[in-house]
């Protein structure tokens, strides 16, 4: 059982659940699968001092209800040290699972179908601004507050400093944005499939209006990392991208180093 003191209302909701720590993913929060008699839940617990607040994800999940298959927020609250978010489960197996190695062309098709569905969410009235100006301001703030993990840079940027990279971010900024609703971290562990088809999406803390390459760039990197770069073209074809903008792929992968 988890030994942290929970807010009373949350404690009440979790009576009788079994806790299991989830270690997949590079999140700042502690995530647990809660197994219950009727259905499973997930809980995220995170320090109030973390660089990204769970409140951001809570707001996005509430906004996305009825727009995409995402978890429902059962409870959100804070105490003086942590914030807590309890969510329903999206049933299935995430897209990074090795069980998909026997059906990679189909997996690539599903990842593309999933991303098209995300990008087709109408942006009218969407309150979440992740356009370049907003992201660059946030990246600079993180560098100034020393929140960027220089040990975790992608291979081609190993040994560089965050200050050095932020200059590149300003120098290479694309002149135009093809704005759509984006997931913000469209990596394989965040896409859940059931019976071989996309069943839902998780980890929405960075979602908002941005260039579609925010998602395409991270999907390309994640496909390569999990299954090999030879599968990327299948994904791009299925998404319907006729010509890949390599500069934007580079830029949005660079941007991700700050987050």
UniProtKB/TrEMBL annotation:
<dbReference type="GO" id="GO:0016301">
    <property type="term" value="F:kinase activity"/>
</dbReference>
<dbReference type="GO" id="GO:0016773">
    <property type="term" value="F:phosphotransferase activity, alcohol group as acceptor"/>
</dbReference>
<dbReference type="InterPro" id="IPR024165">
    <property type="entry name" value="Kan/Strep_kinase"/>
</dbReference>
<keyword id="KW-0547">Nucleotide-binding</keyword>
<keyword id="KW-0418">Kinase</keyword>
<comment type="similarity">
    <text>Belongs to the aminoglycoside phosphotransferase family.</text>
</comment>
<keyword id="KW-0067">ATP-binding</keyword>
<dbReference type="GO" id="GO:0046872">
    <property type="term" value="F:metal ion binding"/>
</dbReference>
<feature type="domain" description="Aminoglycoside phosphotransferase">
    <location>
        <begin position="19"/>
        <end position="247"/>
    </location>
</feature>
<feature type="binding site">
    <location>
        <position position="203"/>
    </location>
    <ligand>
        <name>Mg(2+)</name>
    </ligand>
</feature>
<dbReference type="GO" id="GO:0046677">
    <property type="term" value="P:response to antibiotic"/>
</dbReference>
<dbReference type="InterPro" id="IPR002575">
    <property type="entry name" value="Aminoglycoside_PTrfase"/>
</dbReference>
<feature type="binding site">
    <location>
        <position position="190"/>
    </location>
    <ligand>
        <name>Mg(2+)</name>
    </ligand>
</feature>
<feature type="active site" description="Proton acceptor">
    <location>
        <position position="185"/>
    </location>
</feature>
<protein>
    <submittedName>
        <fullName>APH(3') family aminoglycoside O-phosphotransferase</fullName>
    </submittedName>
</protein>
<keyword id="KW-0046">Antibiotic resistance</keyword>
<keyword id="KW-0808">Transferase</keyword>
<dbReference type="InterPro" id="IPR011009">
    <property type="entry name" value="Kinase-like_dom_sf"/>
</dbReference>
<keyword id="KW-0460">Magnesium</keyword>
<dbReference type="Pfam" id="PF01636">
    <property type="entry name" value="APH"/>
</dbReference>
<dbReference type="InterPro" id="IPR051678">
    <property type="entry name" value="AGP_Transferase"/>
</dbReference>
<keyword id="KW-0479">Metal-binding</keyword>
<dbReference type="GO" id="GO:0005524">
    <property type="term" value="F:ATP binding"/>
</dbReference>
């Amino acid at each position: 059982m988890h030994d942290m003191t929970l807010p009373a209302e949350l404690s009440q909701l979790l009576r009788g659940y079994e806790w299991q720590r989830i270690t997949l993913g590079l999140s700042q929060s502690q995530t647990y699968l809660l197994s219950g008699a009727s259905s499973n839940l997930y809980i995220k617990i995170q320090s109030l001092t973390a660089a990204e607040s769970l409140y951001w994800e809570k707001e996005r999940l509430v906004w996305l209800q009825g727009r995409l298959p995402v978890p429902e927020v059962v409870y959100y609250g804070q105490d003086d040290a942590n914030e807590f978010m309890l969510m329903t489960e999206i049933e299935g197996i995430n897209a990074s699972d090795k069980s998909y190695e026997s059906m990679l062309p189909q997996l690539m098709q599903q990842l593309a179908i999933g991303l098209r569905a995300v990008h087709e969410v109408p942006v009218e009235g969407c309150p979440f601004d992740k356009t370049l100006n907003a992201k660059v301001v946030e990246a600079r703030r993180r560098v100034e507050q020393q929140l960027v993990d220089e040990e975790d840079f992608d291979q081609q940027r190993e040994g560089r400093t965050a200050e050095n990279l932020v200059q590149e971010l300003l120098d290479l900024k694309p002149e135009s944005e093809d704005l759509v609703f984006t997931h913000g971290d469209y990596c394989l562990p965040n896409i859940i499939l059931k019976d071989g088809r996309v069943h839902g999406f998780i980890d929405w803390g960075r979602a908002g209006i941005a260039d579609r390459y925010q998602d395409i760039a991270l999907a390309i990197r994640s496909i390569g990392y999990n299954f090999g770069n030879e599968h990327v073209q299948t994904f791009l074809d299925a998404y319907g991208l006729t010509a890949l903008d390599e500069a934007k792929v580079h830029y949005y992968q660079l941007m991700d180093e700050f987050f």
